[in-house]
Amino acid sequence: MTMPGTSYHHPLRVAIIGSGPSGFYAAARLQDEEGLIVEIDMFDRLPTPFGLVRGGVAPDHPKIKSVTKVYEKIAAHPSFRFYGHVEFGSDLQRADLARHYHAIIYAVGAQTDRRLGIPGEDLAGSHPATEFVAWYNGHPDYRHLQFDLTQESVAVVGIGNVAMDVARILARSIAELRQTDIADYALDALAHSKVTTIYILGRRGPLQAAFTNPEIKELGEMEEADVVVGPDEISLDPLSQAILDRGEDKTAAKNLEYLREYARRPLSGKPKRLIFRFLVSPVELIGTHRVEAMKIVKNELVDDGRGGLKARPTDQFETIPVGLVFRSVGYRGLALPGVPFHEPWGTIPHDRGRVLTQLNGGQPVPGDYVVGWIKRGPSGIIGTNKPDSIETVESLLEDLKAGKLMDPPDPSRAALERLLRDRGVRYVTFDDWLYLDQLEQQRGQAEGRPRIKFTDVEEMLHLVEEHKQLISKQEMGG
Ligand code: NAP
Q1: What spacing in Å lies between the alpha carbon of 116 and ligand 1's midpoint?
Q2: What is the pTM for the complete model shown?
Q3: Given CA atoms 80, 83, 84, 87 in this order, what sign does their dihedral have?
């Protein structure tokens, strides 16, 4: 077999499953390879691209979302095709891809949430933060969810950046939210929200918070909400003080500065309050039919034996009255059909991006690669995915040169598209998406908002179809 990628008759064909940041950075690295003739087909189960940039990044963070301009350039490269509304595992199996591609890169992210494992966790009114985020961002699978915003007191469990996003969205004024691309149904629901008290609960201390500096700073700049930090909450235990004194973690030290400033600030009388509590863990959600309160235990910090500090419960308990709970303790990856999975970590086992049959002592699966959160777990910011995807593609390119990729019998786009059509899959191209994108922005402009998202898959497919028919009529001079 001649090495694929050396001529236009015999390009390297790569399928990327998932169209979030890690998938796009993998595509970019393939495009950058000097002299490589490559065809990159990117699949997403949604008709819209960009993964968590569209469905995860908070609507009031438009600057972060502007990274899609970079992805649009990658998509405009002649090597690239987008196939939206195509689901791996149902519309296409791994065996189908093995017929048409030399390599597959899984870039599916982490699609579910970690659990607390406490009694009452599944009571009505207790939700994973991931679902609330997907709901307010207009993710089609979550648009029908309901959150009881008639509750006045809410708890957000966890103190990472997702917890900050959720707390902010609950605390924002409607005027602030109206300037964003938040889903229109979420804007309506939040306009009637009665939420005034938002507890933010960290199981460890202020120095161990997982949020970053801009996020904690932003919380102190809300139009309608005061931040409340009791002086006891920010007094450090001797172990944390020693860590602070070593001066190694600048982010943690700065976080503490903001929290100390909030502790000094008098209340300004804004209608909502964001109340930080540290060193507490929920042990039970209490309620007959729905959440009525949360029992928490006070923790202390102890050496975790790995150079860090972990929370250990004491015998002091407290009950806080909350009617709504958002569990923001991290995302978790889901297994893909026919692809190895390491259940304890919720990730695909790999060696520098090469998928392994199992984590310890596993063999590489020829042709299979992994990037992003499903590779390394749900951590880091968007930019973290760039070096991560580069590492994986470099492994792929090494394997290409060593003749270790798959040898597909029918490596052509036409064959892939025929397969999709034969199966009745109504796939969406990148041009179709650009049309939807333009419509969303036009709808937004009419109401002075950046965009109004489509959130219904059928509606999107219908609009795309209508547009295609119009264009073909025009082309035929009709
Ligand atoms: P995260 O940063 O890992 O934070 C998870 C939080 O949950 C931590 O405070 C953790 O505490 C806590 N936690 C875990 N298990 C718990 C339990 N059983 N009980 C109580 N608390 C528990 O995760 P994330 O907030 O989901 O964010 C995911 C990634 O996306 C992060 O890297 C984040 O920075 C990134 N992100 C970035 C932005 C942004 O740049 N603006 C926005 C959103 C998300 P411990 O530390 O004690 O484990």
Answers
A1: 13
A2: 0.96
A3: negative
